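Handout for the seminar on molecular recognition.
Each group receives one record of this type.
Step one: identify the two inputs.
Step two: read the structure output and locate the region that could contact WTA.
Step three: write two sentences on what you found, then compare them with the reference statements printed after the record.
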Amino acid sequence: MLPDKAPDEDVFCGSADLKRDAHVASFEKYKELYMKSIETPDEFWGDIAKDFFWKTKHSGQFLDYNFDVTKGEIFVKCMEGATTNICYNLLDRNVHDRKLGDRVAFFWEGNDPGDDLTVTYRELLQRVCQFANVLKSQGVKKGDRVSIYMPMVLELVVAMLACVRIGAVHSIVFAGFSAESLCERILDSECSLLVTADGFYRGDKLINLKLLADEALQKCRDKGLLINRCIVLKHLSKEPEEILGSQSPPTKRSCPDLQQDKQAGRVKKTRPVPQVPWNPDVDLCWHALLRGASDECEPEWCESEDPLFILYTSGSTGKPKGVLHTVSGYMLYTATTFKLVFDHQPDDVYWCTADIGWITGHSYITYGPLANGATSVLFEGLPTFPNESRMWEIVDKYRVTKLYTAPTAIRLLMKFGSEPVKKYKRESLKILGTVGEPINPEAWQWYYNVVGDKRCPIVDTFWQTETGGHVLTPLPAATPLKPGSATFPFFGVVPAILNESGEELEGPSEGYLVFKQPWPGVMRTVYGNHPRFETIYFKKFPGYYVTGDGCRRDKDGYYWITGRIDDMLNVSGHLLSTAEVESALVEHKAVAEAAVVGRPHPVKGESLYCFVSLTNGVTFTCTLEAELKKQVREKIGAIATPDYIQNAPGLPKTRSGKIMRRVLRKIACDEHDLGDISTLADSSVVQQLFQNRCSTAV
Ligand code: WTA
């Protein structure tokens, strides 16, 4: 299934420096380990499990499962019989067994430059134990669900790990979601307590989170769920002595003056603080509760398949799905993917720009890095605030070695050219990563050439909320890279490509991406709705986990994600991926971002309707339109020639930055009933797009 040898044309390879210390240093080694992971999983994962603490060991086989709906209920069980606690493995094991207590766990960088904090593993353990005791004193028990609605602050990590320590199940709701979405998620998971904050700044904009939380709790009450406890962190209004980490011994600081300002509580006080409504019957102050709490807390020893957390992800139809992950498999999988995909080394400073409210933040800010004793940057702000150099300033400030971000951020920054990047040295960078959507080769090249100065391999990691961790990904020192390809499967993962009839395709081919067997980190169920889980992921092609993504395998065996299957277009009987056309459009220097949808066509079935956001300073003209058509035709072929090209100064995006193609499809067809657009970040964009619609083909 894997190629006999790595291809030798058109690829990028890790440097000799990187290979010297790498965990997996060659393609041969990758193949050998991959075969071991598939043929003898008990041995492969058993060796990895030895690094972790188990209160009791597992008995029997490593993975027990049924992936075939025709043979009965779908289930996956990993390390049955074992008991452990992830919080213990992330913190106590690092502090006590590995003697990493003084190591920095997080450099927290606030929205405003100069607003920063440092927390060590020892301090984090103390705070987590204290908050775990607070939760217990509020009656939270093993198995209870706790909803967390917080900005990107250290206390978010504290709250999630405190749940884990006592065996409670966290359900984190991204702080960009509305009160309605929060309510829907609290109701679905029947949470007994909410942890939130007064508010936060996104750039210059104040978000009064507590108001939204109150509104959500009121909506819950109206629908019959009474939540009578809400713990509120005073993030913007707290006193200096309440700031996490402020009493820690000085560790590496690059802004000593600003740090002093910070400790005097000055930096934040330059901005208005939100007026927080306070209901004494429900609201509890985080700091007041913490003050009397002991910093020792015996962990709750959990079974391998006990629930760990619920995270909601949007469903193609209506209601979001509560993806449920469990203890041992998720821990091993996130720890191992983090270690190998970012080739983690002890002196690394790792930075993942995702929000903890999404799966990337769960797996690759909290669980994977902490399991490895890594030092990370936790960033509250925006890549363009106060200016377009912010990310590179942070890279230099903390000497970041591994940077993990999203193609949408790369394309956003590309708009401003290389000058804001080149102002900073970035010489500490060693490995770059991307996640979340297919990365078009042009963005890949910019990331590689401009950000990484042609020194740093890019790991294009394909995975989903459902997969728990990376499933298709390069290993930076082992895998020759092709720009835009997520390359090969991670250990334990067996991909296949199916055609519409469910037949496995061999060799170069394109179709549905599926997985033939589970890996430790795969989701176990949709919370409270196992039949829905089976229907969405297992019914279409019995015997396989269906990702919902299209994929192409090239002659060298590389996997290329072509976008969601629902983003596939059929033009005159030819299957086209929207991502492919978009990539061709953005290769034009005038185009910063593009989104392509299908519009019904009487002869061809579907025609291509393209929305393009132009680079700063460029105007939309007929000449440009013609150039773009030509560009796509040249890159893909006449079949892909766009029928419509619309100037789109803004595109409708979710708050996590994903383009809502569903909305664009409606705009293309001039249909004003847009369905649920509650996840849209900026709804004014839609109006503008309707006004600028193209009615005739170009
Ligand atoms: C897409 C994010 C191409 C894909 C971790 C998947 C990608 C969905 C990549 C999951 C990638 C994620 N290349 N597409 N490297 N990574 N995707 O659940 O369509 O927010 O199914 O998880 O994002 O999104 P989710």
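Reference statements: The longest strand covers residues 591-601. The pocket of WTA is lined by residues 313, 358-360, 435-438, 460-465, 486, 547-549, 561, 564 (CB under 6 Å).
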